[in-house]
Write a structure and sequence with these properties.
Layout lengths: L2 H4 L2 H11 L4 H8 L3 H15 L4 H9 L3 H24 E2 L4 E2 L2
Antiparallel strand pairs: 1-2
Helix pairs in contact: 2-4, 2-5, 3-4, 4-5
Amino acid sequence: MSVTRELSDAEKRVIALLCEGLPNKEISRRLSLSEATVKVHCRTIFLKIGAANRTDAVLKWLRVPSDEIFWLRRENEELRETIKTLTRSFNVTSGEVAQ
């Protein structure tokens, strides 16, 4: 079984952000999850792919053939664009909706 098929969609999103070097707090913010949930996903990822730690998990993930994770990269790009659009819709400093 391939690494990408072993991980849930949520775990794939988490490991993609781990590859960017983000800490759990930032991953939780970007994915709208609690830090505890991110930690659970990390532990589960480590177990499923046989990684000893975050660095090992990232190295194993980066060895996955690119055609297997193409969809995830595209999905992350779409997520980033959605976040940018939502951010522009709100006045971040005052919390008011932009007109």
